């Protein structure tokens, strides 16, 4: 059964595109079709070649179904042994496939490409989540995703223990320096968004304690502290929480910019709610997965 959190429609679109890219307009694997009878049956194992955290397992069935439709055959049977979000060890068998050898080989590269990419993101995210354990801070992703893969990459972040910040420009308003310049200040920008979109969450980017207090005075209750040192961030958190507490309110605070795994725990311990890390999606190395015939 597919995880209900898995973005099945986005995955189907990707699989359709990827198979067309790999098999061409005629849906053809020239090597396999020339050397292997369509009725030859085999068993294949999807295995981990290195440790990680799995993401993208439901893609296997989608790829097998896609290949079967191209060959007018019955898709190989599938037994999933490890589900998304689980840690992988070297040699772990993620899934067993049994069916047409030709179909299995036609599906191999597409399913591995997608799963290796998503597993890489989940594994990278898990390292950040582990580094922040006990601090009360959560790691967030950003919009720095591969075009066309955002839903899947953000799913992989969730599988790795992270949280999605916003899906796009449409669901959260973020007032950054260019918006402040264009609108004539933090207060005019905040007010304009609140009047036009009264229900949308608004976050304001700040680079100093003074800017944070200005944003709070304008009405913001979600701050993104950009490129602050640990000491400046800690002082800003204290000042911001004292300001809202005096009014019987609360504020969410995020830190971003130049963060590394080595300093994640130190930043997380400043009292912030979130660390956002663009590298979760734009710089995660793949995890090496393979499909072995047995």
From TrEMBL:
Protein name: nicotinate-nucleotide diphosphorylase (carboxylating)
Domain (Quinolinate phosphoribosyl transferase N-terminal): residue spans on this chain: 29-118
Protein role: Involved in the catabolism of quinolinic acid (QA).
Superkingdom as given in the UniProt entry: Bacteria
Record Pfam families: QRPTase_C, QRPTase_N
Enzyme class: transferase
UniProt keyword annotations, A-Z: Glycosyltransferase, Pyridine nucleotide biosynthesis, Transferase
UniProt GO MF annotations: nicotinate-nucleotide diphosphorylase (carboxylating) activity
Record-annotated Quinolinate phosphoribosyl transferase C-terminal domain positions: 121-292
InterPro entries, alphabetized: Aldolase_TIM (IPR013785), NadC (IPR004393), NadC/ModD (IPR027277), Nicotinate_pribotase-like_C (IPR036068), Quinolinate_PRibosylTase_N_sf (IPR037128), Quinolinate_PRibosylTrfase_C (IPR002638), Quinolinate_PRibosylTrfase_N (IPR022412)
Gene from which this protein is expressed: nadC
EC number: 2.4.2.19
Reaction catalyzed: nicotinate beta-D-ribonucleotide + CO2 + diphosphate = quinolinate + 5-phospho-alpha-D-ribose 1-diphosphate + 2 H(+)
Pathway(s) of this molecule: Cofactor biosynthesis; NAD(+) biosynthesis; nicotinate D-ribonucleotide from quinolinate: step 1/1
Similarity field: Belongs to the NadC/ModD family.
